[in-house]
Amino acid sequence: MVSPAIALAFLPFLITLLIRYRHYLVLLYRAVLLGWLQDRLTGVPREQRAFQYVLTHAIPGDPHHILHTFDQWSYHCEHLSCVGPLKGKIVERLLCERAPRTVLELGTYCGYGTVLMAAAMPAGARLYTVEPNPQHASVAEKVIRLAGFDEQTVS
Length: 155
Hints:
Subcellular location: Endoplasmic reticulum
Largest sheet: 2 strands, parallel
Shape: elongated
Number of helices: 7
EC number: 2.1.1.6
Number of strands: 2
Main location: endoplasmic reticulum
Radius of gyration: 20 Å
Protein name: catechol O-methyltransferase
Family: Belongs to the class I-like SAM-binding methyltransferase superfamily. Cation-dependent O-methyltransferase family.
């Protein structure tokens, strides 16, 4: 049995750790615990909730507005593991510089990166994307079609 004096001696150490690593705790709460709890309470996966938000708030056929709406969802509602606007600028710049005719994306997730790359690719280029999770693939396909891309551009 641990004496109360020893337990109280560790209290300042624990408080110091909590203060020092509070950003990681907030990230753990937002990215893992909050999403898990909402998945269980609503019965709707996070990716489907994000798509409903995009469907409600984004302008169909405008890829940049759809990406902006995804960013708003990630910043204000729930965390989604997406490329984001800062890294997205780098991807867009690389695609504009290299002007590839064919691009392969492994791991589509919600379609954020796919829409980003398809919008930055030159006319006539083709993007192939693969997603092993059928639920994520379903959401990604809806997002890609909402952005205005067809089977000739993205498959």
